[in-house]
Design a protein that fits this description.
Largest sheet: 7 strands, mixed
CATH class of the largest domain: Alpha Beta
Number of strands: 23
CATH topology of the largest domain: FAD/NAD(P)-binding domain
CATH architecture of the largest domain: 3-Layer(bba) Sandwich
Helix content: 25-40%
CATH superfamily of the largest domain: FAD/NAD(P)-binding domain
Bound molecules: flavin-adenine dinucleotide
Shape: globular
Distance between the termini: 24 Å
Number of helices: 16
Radius of gyration: 22 Å
Number of domains: 3
Structural class: alpha/beta
Strand order of the largest sheet: 8-7-18-19-20-17-21
C-alpha cells in the first residue's frame, strides 16, 4: 500500500510515522519551506526559543507526554494560580489565586461549575451564558480569557460544543499547561526523522475515485499517485478552496466543512527594554486589547525580556485592521497604559499573522452553533481519502497539538485496517489506547 500525506504538521507527521513504522510506503507533501505547520519554534528572536505558533502542552495526561519522556525533554509548568496577575474589572491587580478567592464572579469563569442547563440547538456561547445568568462583568471575564483562548469571539461558538469540550477536557487531558523548554520543534523533528518529506510543494488538486487510488498535482505541475491520501491540511485551506477535489467531496463532507470555521488568532511578540513584572510573574490577564500576555523568557537564565500577546476573535481583528506596524504599537501601548509603565519600549517586535498565512488561513477550528457533530463527519474516511488534522479531533482535544497528533494516528490506523495490514503482517499499529 502506498500513501501520500498532505501537510507536515503534527497530524501529517504522526500519520506518516505510524504508517512507515508499520512498513508502508509513505511520502509527505508540504507546501511551506519548513515542517511543523502551526508548531513553529523560532530561534532568532531571542537567546531562548520563542514559539510563534503552539506553545503549551495542554494537560498532564495527554499523549504527547510519552514523547516528551522518551526524548527526555525538560518542561516548565505554568503555575497559573501563583505566577499570573489578573487585572480585575474594578481596577485592582491580584494574583490569580487571590482574584479567584475574593471574586466568585471571576472564579466561576475558571472552575466552570455551571448549573445543569442544556444549551438550545442553535445557541451560541454568549447567548447561553447570558441565559443562565452571567452578567456583563462576568461575560467580560469570559471574553478576556476563556473565549480568547477558544480562538474566536463568543457569539460564533456553539454553546453545545464548548460545554462538551469543557466537560470532557479534565477527564481526558488532565490539568495544567506546560512548555517544552527546548521548543515544540523537538517533537516535530523527532516524528520527521527518517520520513520522506517534500517541502515547498503546495498541492493544488486531488483526483480521486471511491475505493480506488488518488492522483494529486502540485503548484509546479508535479503529479503524485498512491493507493490512499491523508489530508491533514488546515481547515482554513479546505474552506478557502485551496485544494480542488475532482470529483467534488461527498455531500456529508461538504456539510461538515460548512459547520466549522477557523478563528483569527495572532501572536504579537516583543523583546522589551526592561522587565515587565516581578521575576515570579509569568503571565498577565489584562483588561485591554491584548487581553492575554505571557513571557517566553520565563524559566530561562537570560537577560532577554520577551513577552507574547495572544489575541483572537474581535480583539485580533481590531488590531489587524490597523496594519502590522500600528497593531504592534497599539498592543504595546495598551500594556504600557494598563501597567502604568510608559518607559517600556520594544527593541524588537514581531506579529505572527496566522489568518494571513495562505497555508493556514486562521488559528484553529471551532464548531458553529447548530453544527455539532461536524468534526466527526469531517474525520470519517472516504477511501481513498482519509482525514486528519486538529479540526477532525473530538471536541475536547480539537484545536490542540495533541489532538492533531492523535488524529494522524487515527487516520493511519484506518488505512492499515482497510488494507488488512494486521492480518497480513500479524502486527498491530503501536498506538495509545483511545483514538476515538
Ligand atoms: C497562535 C497559535 C497558538 C496555539 N497554541 C497552542 C498551544 O499552546 N497548545 C496546543 O496544543 N495547540 C495550540 N495551537 C493549536 C495547534 O497549533 C494546532 O492545533 C496544531 O498544531 C495543528 O496541527 P495540524 O497538523 O492539524 O495542522 P498544521 O500544523 O497547520 O499542519 C498542516 C500543514 O499542511 C500544510 N499545507 C497547507 N496547505 C497545503 C497544501 N495545499 N499542500 C501541502 N501542504 C499544505 C501547512 O503548511 C502545514 O504545514 C495554537 C495555534 C495557534 C495558531
Amino acid at each position: 500500500m502506498s500513501t501520500l500525506v498532505l501537510g507536515a504538521g503534527m497530524a501529517g507527521l504522526s500519520a506518516a510515522k505510524a504508517l512507515q513504522d508499520a512498513g508502508e510506503d509513505v511520502l509527505v507533501l508540504e507546501a511551506k519551506s519548513r515542517i511543523g505547520g502551526r508548531t513553529y519554534t523560532n530561534r532568532d528572536f531571542a537567546e531562548h526559543p520563542v514559539e510563534f505558533g503552539a506553545e503549551f502542552i495542554h494537560g498532564d495526561k495527554v499523549v504527547l507526554w510519552s514523547l516528551v519522556k522518551a526524548l527526555d525533554l525538560q518542561t516548565l509548568h505554568w503555575q497559573k494560580t501563583t505566577d499570573s496577575l489578573v487585572h480585575l474589572e474594578e481596577g485592582d491587580w491580584l494574583s490569580m489565586e487571590d482574584a479567584r478567592a475574593t471574586h466568585p464572579e471571576f472564579d466561576i469563569t475558571r472552575t466552570w461549575l455551571l448549573p445543569e442547563v442544556d444549551p438550545l440547538a442553535h445557541e451560541d456561547w454568549q447567548a447561553y451564558l447570558s441565559r443562565i445568568g452571567f452578567n456583563e462583568k462576568q461575560l467580560r471575564y469570559v471574553r478576556r480569557s476563556f473565549s480568547n483562548a477558544c480562538g474566536e469571539s463568543m457569539r460564533f461558538l456553539s454553546a453545545k460544543a464548548v460545554l462538551e469540550g469543557l466537560r470532557a477536557t479534565l477527564e481526558h487531558n488532565g490539568e495544567g499547561d506546560y512548555r517544552i523548554l527546548s521548543g515544540y520543534d523537538a517533537l516535530v523533528n523527532h516524528l520527521a526523522k527518517g520520513l520522506e518529506i517534500k517541502i515547498n510543494d503546495p498541492i493544488l488538486s486531488v483526483y480521486w475515485e471511491a475505493n480506488q487510488g488518488v492522483r494529486v498535482t502540485s503548484l509546479d505541475g508535479e503529479v503524485y499517485e498512491a493507493d490512499s491520501l491523508i489530508i491533514s491540511v488546515p481547515l482554513g485551506v479546505l474552506l478557502s478552496d485551496g485544494i480542488k477535489f475532482n470529483p467534488l467531496l461527498p455531500r456529508h463532507k461538504r456539510s461538515a466543512l460548512n459547520g466549522l470555521r477557523m478563528g483569527p488568532v495572532i501572536k504579537l511578540i516583543y523583546k522589551l527594554n526592561q522587565p515587565v513584572t516581578e521575576k515570579e510573574i509569568m503571565a498577565i490577564y489584562g483588561k485591554g486589547n491584548p487581553p492575554m500576555w505571557w513571557s517566553p523568557s520565563f524559566g530561562f537564565e537570560t537577560n532577554d525580556n520577551v513577552w507574547t500577546a495572544f489575541v483572537s476573535g474581535d480583539w485580533a481583528m481590531d488590531l489587524l485592521v490597523k496594519g502590522e506596524e500600528a497593531a504592534l504599537e497599539n498592543a504595546l501601548n495598551s500594556l504600557k497604559t494598563e501597567l502604568n509603565r510608559p518607559e517600556l519600549e520594544a527593541n524588537a517586535a514581531h506579529l505572527q499573522n496566522w489568518p494571513d498565512d495562505p497555508y493556514t488561513r486562521g488559528g484553529y477550528s471551532f464548531v458553529l452553533p447548530g453544527h455539532d457533530g461536524a468534526r466527526e463527519k469531517l474525520a470519517s474516511p472516504t477511501p481513498p481519502l482519509f482525514w486528519a488534522g486538529e479540526a477532525t479531533a473530538p471536541e475536547h482535544r480539537a484545536a490542540t497539538v495533541h489532538g492533531a497528533y492523535m488524529s494522524g494516528l487515527r487516520a493511519a490506523k484506518e488505512i492499515l485496517e482497510l488494507s488488512g495490514h494486521s492480518q497480513k503482517t500479524g502486527k498491530n499499529l503501536a498506538e495509545p489506547a483511545n483514538l476515538a
